[in-house]
UniProtKB/TrEMBL annotation:
This is Citrate lyase subunit beta. Keywords: Lyase, Magnesium, Metal-binding. PANTHER family: CITRATE LYASE SUBUNIT BETA, LYASE BETA SUBUNIT, PUTATIVE (AFU_ORTHOLOGUE AFUA_4G13030)-RELATED. Substrate binds at R79, E138. Coiled coil: none annotated. The lineage of its organism: Bacteria, Bacillati, Actinomycetota, Actinomycetes, Propionibacteriales. Its EC number is 4.1.3.6.
Length: 294
């Protein structure tokens, strides 16, 4: 697998709101909304006959936006179609772009994307490796390729396209298959952690009117190790933020633990609940505080 410099990025956004690129009137409104990031979609949301039109809308709007700053404003990601990779990346890679979401991600497609991004960064005066990729795992091949894909430094993390993944695996979403689906999700979490990638992005729900169910599924996915989630409706975004933010008691406990750890100066000490403070406990406390800062 090819690799490049590790992309520089702030903490991964909590929420990613999908916006179809055939609806340019929504771009600025969505960017001014509550979502941490947009995914301007050149793939599933665009009919084949309107692909060129969508790319033109995207390119025109991105050129009006300021250059990407990882620590400021709404991040602007673009979902690209591997079946139209060159044309989509040509429209997507501009200074305002925060990164690329690669649909139907496999090792071969990720390698091709990495190569093309290196060319575009050089041609457009962007820093090498500055355009990160989130790879959407949507097939059995994508699952099998997880170990190889994590070798690509440009890859920030994975997301899941569960509807396509279940279809490819001939699985039906039901109470009977829930444990098997969680096992597939956990594979992605494990590979991200083992490779030192950021925690993966959880899939959205198309039942955007049932926000209680959306909150519960977000809690479940957070328990599995996901730390971000995609949305298809702005109403889902506050739910994502509320669920993924640690509560006040978690934050206070994490602060207390870190204070005890720092006071101990590397010596043996315990948390308020009597647990021995070791490296894993410290790592967990730091993650809680980082999530609170988001």
């Amino acid at each position: 697998m090819s690799s490049t410099a590790t992309p520089t990025a702030a903490a991964l956004p909590r929420s990613f709101l999908y916006v179809p690129t055939v609806r340019p009137e929504l771009f600025s409104k969505a960017a001014d909304g509550p979502a941490d990031a947009l995914i301007l979609d050149l793939e599933d949301a665009v009919p084949l006959a309107r692909k060129d039109e969508a790319r033109d809308h995207l390119r025109a709007w991105l050129t009006t936006r300021p250059a990407h700053d990882p620590g400021a404003g709404t991040q602007l990601w673009v979902r690209v179609d591997p079946d139209a990779l060159d044309a989509d990346l040509d429209a997507a890679v501009l200074p305002a772009t925060s990164g690329v979401v690669l649909a139907k991600c496999t090792a071969a497609q990720l390698d091709a994307t990495d190569t093309r991004l290196r060319d575009l960064e050089r041609q457009r005066g962007l820093a090498p490796g500055s355009v990160p990729v989130i790879g959407l795992v949507e097939s059995g091949l994508g699952l099998l390729d997880l170990p190889r894909m994590t070798q690509v430094e440009r890859l920030l993390t994975f997301g899941l396209g569960e509807a396509d993944l279940l279809g490819d695996l001939r699985m039906v979403r039901s109470a009977r298959s829930a444990a098997a689906l969680d096992a597939l999700r956990t594979q992605v979490v494990v590979h991200c952690a083992a490779a030192g990638k950021q925690a993966p992005v959880a899939p959205t729900s198309t039942a955007f009117r049932d926000l209680e169910a959306f909150a519960e599924s977000t809690r479940h996915l957070s328990d599995l190790g996901f730390r971000s989630r995609t949305a298809i409706h702005p109403g889902q975004v506050p739910v994502i933020h509320d669920v993924l933010a640690p509560d006040e008691s978690e934050v206070e406990a994490a602060r207390d633990l870190m204070a005890r750890f720092e006071t101990s100066a590397g010596g043996v000490t315990t948390a308020a609940d009597g647990r021995l403070i070791d490296a894993a406990v410290v790592r967990g406390a730091r993650e809680v505080l980082a999530r609170a800062e988001r």
